[in-house]
């Protein structure tokens, strides 16, 4: 049986790998920040942090199980159809979400939160929540569930 060849990594290869990692991390930050802005810009910092925690909790559940239907990383979780309504093409926020930039103070805040979340520096105030909804609605999936937290106008649940 032939042994596999080992590929020598030079500093250029390692540098390229780091650039790819940084590019992907920057994409995660951008998608998460847009999700926070689209879902919770009216909820202040605590509300946006809570939504970020839901995304991270979903990623954690997926990683613990090997995979999960809602996606296995930040980008997949945020953009899974019908999970975060701001990414639905029919949602009024969708076009705004594509155009917003750091000149918007709420988006600048969302970016700061997303950066902390992506590097693992965000505390979870939701009690491990994987779902949430606005307090003004009553989705069928929340009827018999016990909330893990109420933050601003959002109610949070752990549903796995």
Portion in beta strands: 5-15%
- Could you give a short account of the major beta sheet? 3 strands, antiparallel
- Report the C-alpha radius of gyration, rounded: 18 Å
- The tally of helices reads 5
Structural class: mainly alpha
Q: In one word, what is the shape?
A: globular
Helix content: 40-55%
Order of helices and strands: HHHHHEEE
| CA distance, first residue to last residue | 45 Å
Mean pLDDT: 91
> Uncertain runs with pLDDT below 50, 5 residues or more?
none
Reading side by side through the largest sheet, how are the strands ordered?
Answer: 1-3-2
Overall strand count: 3
Protein architecture, described:
The chain is mainly alpha-helical and 160 residues long. The chain has a domain at 17-124. Helices cover 49% and strands 7% of the residues. The chain contains five helices and three strands; from the N terminus they run αααααβββ. A three-stranded antiparallel beta sheet has the order 1-3-2, covered by helices on one side. Helix 1 packs antiparallel against helix 4 (93-99) and helix 2 runs parallel beside helix 5 (105-118). The longest helix has 30 residues, at 11-40. The radius of gyration is 18 Å and the shape is globular.
């Amino acid at each position: 049986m032939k042994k596999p060849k080992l590929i020598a990594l030079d500093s250029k290869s390692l540098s390229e790998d780091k650039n790819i990692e940084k590019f992907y991390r920057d994409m995660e930050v951008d998608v998460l920040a847009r999700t926070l802005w689209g879902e919770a810009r009216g909820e202040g910092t605590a509300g946006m942090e809570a939504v970020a925690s839901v995304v991270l909790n979903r990623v954690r559940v997926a990683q613990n199980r090997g995979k999960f239907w809602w996606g296995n990383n930040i980008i997949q979780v945020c953009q899974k159809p019908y999970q975060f309504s701001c990414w639905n093409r029919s949602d009024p926020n969708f076009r705004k979400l594509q155009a917003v930039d750091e000149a918007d103070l709420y988006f600048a805040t969302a970016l700061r939160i997303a950066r902390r979340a992506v590097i693992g520096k965000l505390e979870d105030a939701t009690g491990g929540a994987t779902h949430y909804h606005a307090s003004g609605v009553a989705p069928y999936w929340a009827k018999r569930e016990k909330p893990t937290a109420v933050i601003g106008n959002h109610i949070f649940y752990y549903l796995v």
